[in-house]
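Narrative of accomplishments. A recurring question from our advisory board has been how the design workflow behaves on a single, concrete structure rather than in aggregate. To address it, we present the structure tokens for one chain from the evaluation set, followed by the sequence designed for it. No filtering or post-editing was applied between the two.
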């Protein structure tokens, strides 16, 4: 019985049992192979990451150097040499980083959770920097060489507008590349990055932002300047010499007006008109809005000196153009305004110049000569106006004669623009559309600056004492969190005249002895909220103060008047919203402070 039973058991065994035993071994070998491949891929990606990281560190250092050089806008010979040397190094570094972060294995690994975000960030930074170094920086070197070589100025001192026009398309393309790279890197969410990557990404993003902003500004200038300097036909401009001794929102009263023609880069001085020659009108030269009348009175349109009372330079230009056309006549293609500090910067570029009266204007003494000493030695306002007119003509004459290098003058204009001391308006709509969007346009109300706060000063003494008035505008108590973050804009005024201020002529001290004690200084403090924001009454030294209020171009505005005796000081405060993590204040440039203040919330 046992034999058959055993034989039956043997015959019943499944025939494929040995095959089933081999399947787990094959699966195990496949898993092991996959594991090896994954390990090799990980090792390869790690190796590439080390290559990319090293190259990116090299690139970041070079781009930081490039950022520092380009940030000056105007490039001197040393800057051009540094940039010329830095660009090839940057190109080599970014090319290595891009190559390391762009192979197929790396791209596949970008789909791995968490790790993929790190790899994608490295590739984005690598490709963006490589685009900038190869497609944008060479154009900057080219324009730097053009400026540094002196080729932009002809032998007669005129500007070679055709050479500048030829460089414009390359700069426009370079600006587009830099802007795209800036957007790509700025779009990286650093919150999801590993710690060691956060700082390099943020540093690169900040550098690209500055480079992009600079290239955008330079490319716009290269496109605008040739036609504005008469490359396509003669242009006529009015240049306003603002007088900071009597403040207005734009920087000072309109002291004198120079007519300037530009034809194929040749500048020529035409008529010079003092404001005394353009007296008071019975009615505004153009209709004023209700808000303008409430905040500035009808004097804004009746006295040409007061055309600079509005903080919107295009409106100032409109008022000036209308008055010039009415009383002088002729075509006006644009209006330009400068103040004495801007002129001082120009003198640093040109060197000393002599006026028709025999005075020598020097950069280090210009402000005291024009804004202090002139009012001590000139018995009448007409005498002082003649000094100002002579100075303005002498400085502009030096420019038309070719004094100063291109880069030095560009530096002077750039520095003055960044402080709100150089403003331009064009009667040509296509040009004005570009100008109004930049600080150069001074279009506080009519431009695209809805989030900016405004703090402006207008003298109410009817004198020339603002040389002794110090203004300090700061942003305090910056609250960056919560549903409605806010900050405090603080305005401090300090008045420090000479001890015998009342011995100065009446036109200097002011003719409002019935309302203001002689020797004191009265100042209208005009504050604008951002578009759509609420603006409560101002606080002066902690106490609420009332003043004229109006809504102008979507902004709530309030103006209060400060009266300071010699040695006096006062502080105004207003609560404003924090928008997009920052508070930007446009203010009146004075001889002691510039026209822009900005405070930003901490990054991250």
């Amino acid at each position: 019985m046992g034999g058959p039973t055993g034989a039956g058991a043997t015959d019943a065994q499944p025939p494929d049992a040995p095959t089933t035993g081999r399947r787990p071994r094959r699966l195990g070998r496949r898993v092991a192979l996959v594991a090896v491949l994954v390990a090799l891929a990980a090792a390869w990606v790690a190796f590439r990451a080390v290559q990319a990281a090293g190259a990116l560190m090299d690139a970041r250092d070079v781009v930081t150097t490039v950022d520092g050089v380009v940030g000056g806008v105007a490039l001197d010979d040393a800057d051009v040499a540094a940039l010329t040397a830095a660009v090839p190094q940057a190109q080599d570094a970014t090319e290595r980083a891009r190559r390391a972060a762009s192979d197929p294995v790396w791209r596949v690994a970008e789909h791995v959770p968490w790790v993929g975000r790190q790899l994608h960030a490295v590739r984005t930074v690598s490709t963006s920097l490589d685009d900038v170094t190869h497609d944008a920086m060479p154009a900057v070197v080219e324009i730097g060489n053009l400026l540094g070589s002196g080729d932009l100025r002809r032998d007669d001192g005129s500007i070679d507008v055709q050479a500048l026009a030829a460089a414009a398309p390359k700069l426009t393309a370079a600006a587009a590349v830099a802007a795209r790279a800036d957007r790509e890197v700025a779009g990286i969410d650093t919150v999801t990055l590993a710690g060691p990557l956060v700082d390099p990404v943020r540093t690169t993003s900040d550098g690209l932002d500055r480079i992009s902003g600079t290239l955008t500004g330079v490319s716009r200038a290269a496109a605008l300047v040739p036609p504005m300097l008469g490359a396509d036909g003669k242009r006529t401009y009015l240049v306003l010499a603002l007088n900071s001794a009597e403040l207005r929102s734009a920087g000072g009263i309109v002291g004198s007006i120079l007519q300037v023609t530009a034809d194929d880069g040749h500048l020529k001085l035409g008529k010079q008109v003092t404001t005394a020659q353009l007296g008071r009108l019975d009615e505004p030269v153009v209709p004023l809005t209700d808000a303008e009348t409430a905040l500035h009175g009808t004097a804004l349109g009746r006295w040409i000196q007061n055309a600079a009372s509005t903080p919107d330079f295009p409106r100032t230009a409109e008022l000036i153009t209308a008055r010039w056309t009415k009383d002088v006549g002729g075509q006006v293609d644009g209006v330009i305004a400068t103040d004495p500090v801007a002129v001082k910067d120009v003198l640093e570029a040109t060197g000393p110049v002599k006026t028709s009266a025999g005075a020598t204007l020097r950069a280090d003494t210009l402000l005291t000569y024009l804004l202090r000493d002139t009012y001590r030695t000139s018995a009448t306002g007409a005498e002082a106006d003649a000094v100002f007119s002579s100075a303005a003509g002498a400085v502009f004459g030096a420019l038309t004669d070719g004094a100063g290098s291109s880069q030095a003058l560009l530096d002077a204009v750039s520095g003055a623009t960044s402080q709100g001391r150089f403003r331009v308006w064009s009667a040509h709509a296509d040009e004005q559309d570009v100008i109004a969007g930049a600080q150069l346009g001074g279009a506080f109300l009519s431009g695209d600056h809805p989030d900016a706060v405004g703090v402006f000063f207008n003298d109410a003494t009817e004198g020339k004492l603002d040389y002794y008035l110090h203004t300090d505008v700061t942003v305090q108590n910056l609250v960056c969190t919560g549903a409605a973050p806010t900050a405090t804009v603080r305005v401090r005024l300090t008045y420090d005249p000479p001890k015998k201020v009342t011995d100065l002529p009446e036109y200097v001290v002011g003719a409002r002895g019935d309302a203001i004690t002689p020797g004191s200084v009265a100042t209208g403090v005009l504050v604008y909220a951002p578009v759509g924001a609420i603006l409560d009454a101002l606080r002066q030294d902690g106490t609420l103060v009332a003043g004229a209020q109006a809504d102008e171009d979507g902004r709530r505005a309030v103006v209060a008047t400060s009266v300071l005796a010699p040695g006096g000081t006062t502080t105004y405060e207003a609560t404003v919203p924090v928008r997009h993590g920052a508070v930007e204040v446009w203010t009146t440039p004075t001889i002691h402070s510039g026209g822009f203040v900005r405070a930003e919330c901490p990054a991250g």
